[in-house]
Amino acid sequence: MESQEAGQIPYGSSVIRSNAVDVSLPINYKNIAGKTILITGGASGFGAACFQQWANHGANVIIGDVNAQAGTELVARIRKETGNANHHFLSLDVSSWPSQAAFFKQAAKLSPHGGIDHVMANAGITSVPEEGSFQDPPDYATMEDPPAPVHRTLDINLTGVVYTTHLAIAYLSRNPGSRNCSVDEHTAPRDRHLILVSSLAGLSGLPSLPFYATAKHGVVGLFRTLRITGALKSGIRVNMINPYFVETPLLGIDGALVMAGGAMAKIEDVIEATTRLVADQGIIGRALVIGFRGPSSVAKAAGLQPVVADQAIWDVYAHDFEQSDVFVRRIIGVTNLIATARGWVGVISDVGAKLSRPFWKVLGY
User: Fold this and answer.
1) Does the pLDDT of residue 266 top 80, yes or no?
2) Are residues 256 and 354 located together in one domain of the fold?
3) What pTM does this model have?
4) Are residues 351 and 239 in the same domain?
5) How many helices and strands in the chain, by DSSP H and E?
């Protein structure tokens, strides 16, 4: 029986999850070959870099982006380099549900096996004007009809990710030839894998970028829920990456100036972290932070325990299924203990009370 000592309320044993990712282990690149991978926002940045890496190891990659020229040119180049005609670009606006639905449907048709193995929900933007107008708004009190603020960052970085995730669950769970994920199965011809792209801004506040941080916190919340339910309900393994500042088009000139002289993460480390998640099918429910690649002595001084020299990739939720968010877990623990004590009598009593009320009151009207 699991311990119920004060402050120690673990998750149930039914949760399907793997141990913390061991970044000292070699990556099994052979397990990428033949997989069909979808990447939103794949024409530049992390998406384009991962596309190049996975295509080089035999994956069939389909990217979606609003930048048709960049996406078309990238696919043409990688097709030529790899000799694989199963790479495709499709026009995609992640903030539009019809656009995303059409993207997934067409991608499945283009896939050599008629299904999808991996989905990387990568598309994202930053907007300094949006962030600035939110923190320094006009005097709405003097306006007769104040215009609604623009929230494009939230539309793309959060709503877009939710759309992608919703469709990914539908398609991954029906991937032909695939099986429910298992921590004991590290390789297989087919997979069911969703990669959510958040940020260090999803784990901590980010001054001057409240919209961006809000969206990325939302992605973390989505991950922390789906990492529990995805494997249990749909056999899908859900993982996440949380990069620190990296020099990509997303960072922009303003961001590069702010970070000038600072220690940024490297895109090759982001690629390595994401590739680990793709290549090992036994990795389930893990989140990797990608930070500055510094000396082990610096990492130890910060309280980290590196397992490789100049470690840049860290498992951010390494032990949270054993004990996390003490206050919240205690609140949930109180609820669980009360529910356990009440048992079926309590369930029947509550259901009976609801059914005795008029139907419209049960619905909340």
Assistant:
1) yes
2) no
3) 0.85
4) no
5) 12, 8
